[in-house]
Amino acid sequence: MIEWLALITFFMAGIVIVYHHIGYPVVLKWLTQGLENTRPSFYHRHHQITPLDHMLPSISLIMPACNEAGTIQEKIRNLATLDYPDYKLNVILVCDGCTDGTAQLAKKTLTEPECSHLNLCIIEKPVNAGKVAVLNEAISFSRCSVIALSDVSSLLSNDSLLIVAAHLSNENTGVICGSYHFLQSLSVGEQAYWHYQRSIKTRESTLGATLGVHGAFYAFRRELFDLLPADTINDDFTLPVQITMKGYQCLYDPRIIAVELEQACHEMDFQRRKRIAAGNIQQAIRHAGLLHPKFGKIAFNFFSGKFLRPFMPLLLLMALVSSTLLSLSYPIFQIVLAIQLGIYGVTVFYILRRSQPDHKKLRVLFYLVSGHLAMAIGLINYLSGQTKGQWKRVNTET
Predict the structure, then answer these.
(1) Which H or E run includes 150?
(2) Sorting pLDDT into bands at 50, 70 and 90, what band is 55?
(3) Hey, what domains does the chain have and what are their CATH numbers?
């Protein structure tokens, strides 16, 4: 009886694990075959003032910041080069308890001739209130029709806002996000991961059912915004989902590019992934209503991509325990168990060494497995109440 239960557990866990990582992308590819991912043409201004400028929506670009002295100047210079009418773009920099002179550097950069035309408002908060609190306040006070949120550490492609405006001219579109890239990639595994994520988002968008965006840059209709719960961890998932649940589309357009300037060390990357993992379990619980069949393609995407993700460590543990029991009776499971223990052992070894394997394929495997380990720790932290929603910038926040 115990052997049969262990066998059923192993294969059920294995099927779900394989489906989440491989089956879901394959099904998405099948569902999107023959479907055209139509992206609207956009108004090419070429930095020239034209009579058509008045048709563009007013945009408030909000940047929460906590100790961003290393990148704030490049960010402001980047925003000054965006192709969008000056009088239609308001930039708000909220320095949330900064202690490194972020605000002073921002003011200094605004005096540069190339940046002097930028409508930038700098708000200095003496005490760190947290990213969610900053977003709730800044968005609530904005009177622009479109809100764009962006990390200080990411640079935007020149025509990003024009593409946003083109998408939001469709009344059915509520949120638009772009493609996330690294100026200096942390690892081969990270490159493979983001290539994998961009492929999924492209196909989800083709179905009109993208879920979650990247905090480096996304935009949405101001009128659709609802205050975020104060303890929200992954605001860049919760905010778009709130809009999606109102019946609006969240779309992905790879023509919008956000380039990350900062490169985190391995330890900081692991800490970041633990925090995001805690956010994943929080969003799976809070937005379980998205699993209702009435949401159709969105329910399918949420279950396959987001809902299953935080439970991967539990499924991997189930596979490990069940294969351990089965190895006592079946030689084939001794091999299966040895492979699992070998992978986990190597992963922990390199985490403790704060390094990565030399072989390219092993690096990809390491990044995947270490991510699930971070997920497991994040899950434990969240369930034990150790993870708080307050945001503290540690050079890795996304």
Answers:
(1) strand 146-150
(2) very high
(3) 51-270 (3.90.550.10)
199/390 Cα distance (integer angstroms): 31
SS3 99: coil
> Among residues 111, 23, 128, 30, which one has the least CA distance to residue 73?
111
Pairing relationship of beta strands 154-156 and 249-260 according to DSSP bridges: antiparallel
What the block records as the tokens of 13 is 């866990």
Q: What is the mean pLDDT of the chain?
A: 88
Token code pair at residue 250: 């969240």
| Single-letter code of the amino acid located at 199 | S
DSSP sequence for 294-329? GGTHHHHHIIIIIISGGGHHHHHHHHHHHHHHHHTT
What is the Rg, in whole angstroms, of the alpha carbon atoms belonging to the chain?
22
| 286 membership: H or E segment, kind and range | helix 266-286
The predicted-structure confidence for 132-151, as pLDDT tens digits, reads as follows 999 999 999 999 999 999 99
Compute the distance between CA of residue 297 and CA of residue 209 in angstroms, rounded to an integer. 6
pLDDT digits (tens, 9 = 90+) for 3-53: 889 999 999 999 999 999 999 999 999 998 877 767 888 888 889 988 889
Measured between alpha carbons, how far is 87 from 314 in angstroms, rounded to an integer? Answer: 52
Q: Tell whether the torsion through CA atoms of 9, 302, 373 and 188 is positive or negative.
A: positive
Handedness of CA 309, 311, 314, 318 (dihedral sign): negative
User: Strand pairing partners for 197?
Assistant: none
- Report which secondary-structure segment, H or E, holds 217: strand 217-221
What is each CA distance from 82 to 38, 155, 163, 256, 296, in whole angstroms? 24, 10, 12, 12, 37
> Which ranges in 147-223 belong to alpha helices (H)?
160-168, 188-206
Residue-wise pLDDT tens digits, 69-123: 999 999 999 999 999 999 999 999 999 999 999 999 999 999 999 999 999 999 9
Other C-beta atoms closer than 10 Å to the C-beta of 38 total 7
